[in-house]
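Q: what sequence does this backbone want?
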């Protein structure tokens, strides 16, 4: 840590990422498209992309053009699929940066074709089939003419066909089996017209963990790569290691007299005189305000409650009438300390949201630090 850096950081364990990649690939038994959208789920797009590339991930997936360009400019040469619904004017840039394009309608196919022809350079595309999300993609029951047009296209090379699962994080949901059936039905159209079968991919983290039938030719784990389960109902069928820790340091110590409220809105007050420390991170960093008087942190190996409202840049922790803590003591918000741990999943539940939102919410104001990953 440099002398001028704020005492708050995200620590990313690159060895945990390597472990999760290997474990998920071994479990699925097929190539992995590592999903690194939204700043690699808060872990840092470029460092994570480069690390996964060094670890032999087969492909990367992002949501937007800009994310793909950032990876290319950083030296990622792997295939990169842009999974979002593309806008016509972006088609040329996608092709020029050698990004694989999600084609999610006949119109989009025509736009990509036109851009590819103008550039004199074919586009590599993955066809998006909607099997139940009602998001982007052609309904599976209308996939026939769409597939035929794409296969016949002079300027689009159909590398993949894919769909997205709506309920795979719940192992008992019947939705996934229905979606798989619709997807395979759509894929069968390639056979019907005598076209080669492209790469079929369907499984997000929930699919990888819970539904082996969805693994097909490639899997697209995001959150599981980072060692976090998608949902409280999810089963840890693969031993994953959380890659992200969020740590800060005590910046202030005081005794708050009984009955004196703490923080904005005066929503919490101690019943007896107690010791309260201030931690210099807040919702301005993406640490959710919903954790006000709900979350916990680790200091000196002990759990202590966050008390009062979380401010933009700081929050307060009650360490109790006899608690000890000194300025600059480490505070763990997510991660381990002294044999105890606080998982992202727990933080999400306390905040009334999903682990995804906690991770991607941690913003660029927090410095990232990378450990491991050498050799
Ligand atoms: C985000 C995303 C994924 C990864 O989802 P996880 O639940 O994080 O594994 C896979 N496929 C698509 C199309 C996505 O948008």
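A:
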């Amino acid at each position: 840590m440099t002398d001028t850096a704020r005492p708050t950081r995200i620590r990313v364990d690159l060895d945990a990422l390597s472990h999760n990649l290997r474990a998920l690939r071994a479990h699925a038994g097929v190539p992995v498209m590592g999903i690194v959208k939204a700043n690699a789920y808060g872990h840092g797009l470029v460092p994570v992309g480069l690390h996964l590339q060094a670890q032999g991930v087969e492909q990367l997936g992002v949501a937007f053009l800009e994310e793909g360009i950032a990876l290319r400019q950083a030296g990622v040469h792997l295939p990169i699929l842009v999974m979002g619904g593309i806008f016509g004017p972006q088609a040329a840039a996608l092709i020029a940066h050698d990004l694989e394009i999600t084609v999610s309608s006949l119109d989009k196919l025509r736009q990509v074709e036109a851009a590819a022809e103008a550039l004199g350079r074919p586009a590599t595309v993955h066809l998006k089939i909607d099997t139940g999300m009602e998001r982007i993609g052609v309904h599976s029951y209308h996939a026939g003419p769409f597939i035929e047009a794409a296969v016949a296209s002079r300027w689009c090379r159909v590398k993949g066909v894919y769909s997205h699962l709506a309920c795979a994080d719940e192992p008992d949901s019947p939705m996934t089996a229905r979606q798989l059936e619709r997807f395979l039905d759509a894929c069968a159209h390639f056979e019907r017209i005598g076209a080669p079968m492209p790469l079929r991919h369907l499984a997000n983290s929930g699919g990888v963990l819970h539904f082996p039938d969805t693994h097909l030719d490639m899997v697209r784990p995001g959150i599981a790569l980072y060692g976090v389960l998608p949902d409280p109902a999810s089963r840890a069928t693969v031993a994953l290691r959380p890659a992200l820790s969020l740590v800060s340091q005590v910046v202030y110590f005081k005794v708050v007299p009984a009955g004196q409220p703490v923080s904005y809105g005066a929503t919490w007050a101690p019943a007896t005189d107690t010791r309260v420390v201030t931690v210099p991170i807040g919702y301005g960093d993406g640490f959710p305000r919903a954790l006000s008087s709900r979350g916990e942190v680790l200091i000196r190996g002990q759990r202590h409650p966050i008390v009062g409202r979380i401010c933009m840049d700081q929050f307060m922790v009650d360490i109790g009438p006899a608690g000890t803590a000194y300025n600059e003591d480490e505070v763990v918000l997510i991660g381990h300390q002294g044999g105890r741990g606080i998982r992202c999943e727990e933080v999400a539940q306390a905040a009334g949201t999903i682990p995804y939102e906690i991770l991607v919410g941690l913003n660029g104001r927090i410095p990232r630090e990378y450990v491991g990953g050498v050799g």
